[in-house]
Amino acid sequence: MVRKDIWAHLLAYNLVRKVMAQAALAHQRTPRQISFAGAMQTLNEFRTHLLEASADELSELSRRILGGDCSS
């Protein structure tokens, strides 16, 4: 059970880093210029929307997340 928990945390960490790399690319920055805490905060703000979104809505949400648009 502990191994599964560790793997889940590593997966989540790497997914956040992937989003950070995509955001950096979209805004012509390096990934090191993006705050991990800020990325986590943004993803937490969109969590409910991501969980409830249909497949068609996910691309629009991704665009909004990477674009820094936090308006609902």
Structural commentary:
- By secondary structure, this protein is an all-alpha fold.
- It has one domain (2-67).
- Helices cover 76% and strands 0% of the residues.
- The chain contains three helices and no strands.
- It is globular and about 40 Å long.
- The protein starts with a helix and ends in a 5-residue tail after the last helix.
- The model has no long low-confidence stretch (mean pLDDT 89).
In short:
This protein has 72 residues and is mostly helical.
* Cα distance spanning the termini: 37 Å
Radius of gyration: 13 Å
Q: What fraction, in percent, of the residue positions are helical? A: over 70%
Order of helices and strands: HHH
β-strand amount: under 5%
Structural class: mainly alpha
**Mean pLDDT across residues:** 89
The number of distinct β-strands equals 0
Number of helices: 3
What kind of sheet is the major sheet? none
Assign an overall shape: globular
| The number of domains | 1
Contiguous uncertain segments of 5+ residues:
none
Features:
72 residues, mainly alpha, 3 helices, 76% helix, globular
List the helices and strands and how they pair.
Elements: H1 2-26, H2 36-52, H3 55-67
Helix pairs in contact: 1-2
